[in-house]
Amino acid sequence: MALLDLLEFSDQSRSVLGRRLPEDLRADIKIGAQLIVRESQVAIFYRGGQALDTFQPGRHTLTTGNLPLLSKAINKVFGDKTPFQAEVIFVDCGLVDDDTCKWGTKEPMNFSDAQMGIVQLRAFGTMTYKIVDPQLFINKRMKTSAIYKTTEFANWAKDTIVQTMLGVLGEVMKSIIDLPALLTKISAACKARVAADFAKNGVELEDLRIGGISPPPEVQAKINEYSGFGLFKKDLPQFQQYQMAYAVRDAAQNEGGMAGAGMGAGMGMGMGMGMGFMMPGMMAPGMAQQGGYPPGYPPQGGYPPQGGYPPQGGYPPQGGYPPQGGYPPQPGYPPQGGYPPQGVPPQVPAAAAPAGLCAGCQAPLTPGVKFCANCGKPTVVEEPATVPCVQCKAPLPKGSRFCPQCGATQVAAAPKCVKCQQELAPGARFCPHCGTAQPG
Asked: I need a surface site. Which of 146, 332, 333, 356 has the fewest CB within 10 A?
């Protein structure tokens, strides 16, 4: 069996935390051998799985004087040289701050956000550490391995940091909106808990830094959309009008051909009607503040004004509306004393109001409008109680599916494509199956 007369371990890359000699455990160490322990290293002699003697940095000559515990294990004598069986483990106790100290989440962490529900977060940062209890480190991390590298410890440390951080986030942070203000607190809490886990393995955590905590790009896009919406919470109606104006502009610039032009024209008409209904309500507060109404309008004291409608000398302006000689009829209207006559409330039901008058306030209506310009109430349109049969024209209750006179079905058949004969939705301009334009 070979005899070792020089024991040393040099690692310029500092990628090894622990190294065992001899590697195959088949060599003996002789008395008088040289032991070289380099700076920041510690050499520990083991025999039978038990730690015996420890050597600090320096050059040592192995004698029975500096091996008091191992000298009892000498079992052979060869003249003046006494070989003995033992293992020497070199442990690097210097500060580790290389590339293996960079940590990050392998997979996004699920976090319950108080405002946005479940969101995913990623985190990254750096750490620095050193071994302060070599024997505990060997027993807990290195164990029986011949070599233990920094990458092996880094893998364990990264999992510990991520697990700890997830617990801290759940306790400290309620929403990722508060993350910038809580980052220092989160970092301190994580460092304290991770340091306790490191100490159980004989390692001291010098520093733990969090480079950033952020969601994945697709989640960040949703957060940006949500935050942009929050800017308009107080002025949502104005924001909708702003969006509508841009929609009308884009529709007018559409160059999609005749079909696109027709669709754009229809959208433009719909937008215009919607804006027409919205404009009175939007302009009324401003005009009331600025005195923009004509003198005497709206009538003070409610409607109809005392003394008749329209107010004399107020609204409508002379020569404007109504046309001279048109409405209202000059002889006998309005009745003396105002309309309706004092003490006689209108008895006509809302649905049976005279044509051209508002059902609520009896003001004249412009043909085709859906809301009264004076009181804002919707105009009542009496819908027919019956509809004619599609075949024999007999009157049927509205919603009937079959005619009791001729038996004809009242449900119109679904239109079909002129090319592929597939069924289409009512009003479809193009076939979703073959793309063929349908006749109007």
From this structure: 332
Comparing CA positions, the residue from 152, 220, 163 lying closest to residue 193 is: 163
List 423's β-bridge partners, or say none.
Answer: 416
Which of 72-81, 380-389, 425-434 shows the lowest mean pLDDT across its residues?
Answer: 72-81
The reported pLDDT for the residue numbered 317 is 53
SS (H, E, C) 44-90: EEEECCEEEEEECCEEEECCCCCCCCHHHHCCCCECCECEECCEEEE
Identify the pLDDT of residue 104.
Answer: 92
Displacement of CA 161 from its chain's centroid (Å): 25
29 is written with which tokens? 């160490």
The helix (run of H) or strand (run of E) holding residue 131 is: strand 117-131
Work out the angle between the directed axes of helices 236-252 and 257-290 (0-180°, nearest 10): 140
Radius of gyration of the chain (CA): 46
Strands 58-61 and 41-47, sheet pairing:
unpaired
For the chain, the 3-state helix, strand and coil shares in percent, each to the nearest 5, are 30, 25, 45
Query: What residue type is 254 in one-letter code?
Result: N
Cα 253 from chain centroid (whole Å):
33
One-letter amino acid identity for 338?
G
pLDDT digits (tens, 9 = 90+) for 207-217: 999 998 988 78
Q: At 324, which helix (H) or strand (E)?
A: none
Assign 357 a pLDDT band (cuts: 50, 70, 90).
confident
**CA nearest to 395, candidates 380, 384, 382, 379:** 384
Task: Show me where the domains of the chain are located.
Answer: 3-92, 99-222
Asked whether the predicted pLDDT for residue 294 surpasses 70, the reply is no
Q: What is the predicted pLDDT for the residue at 352?
A: 40
CATH class of 99-222: alpha beta
Of 96 and 308, more confident: 96
CA dihedral 330, 335, 339, 340 (to 10 degrees): -130
Using DSSP bridges, classify how beta strands 83-84 and 28-37 pair: parallel, antiparallel or unpaired.
antiparallel
- Taking 90 as the threshold, does the pLDDT of residue 192 lie above it? yes
**Rounded CA separation 37/57 (Å):** 5
- Cα(347)–Cα(366) distance, integer angstroms: 23
User: How many residues belong to the chain?
Assistant: 440
The answer, yes or no, to whether residue 9 has pLDDT greater than 90, is yes
Report the alpha-carbon distance of residue 46 to residue 77 in Å, rounded: 21
- Is residue 62 over pLDDT 80? yes
What whole-number distance in Å separates Cα of residue 96 and Cα of residue 152?
13
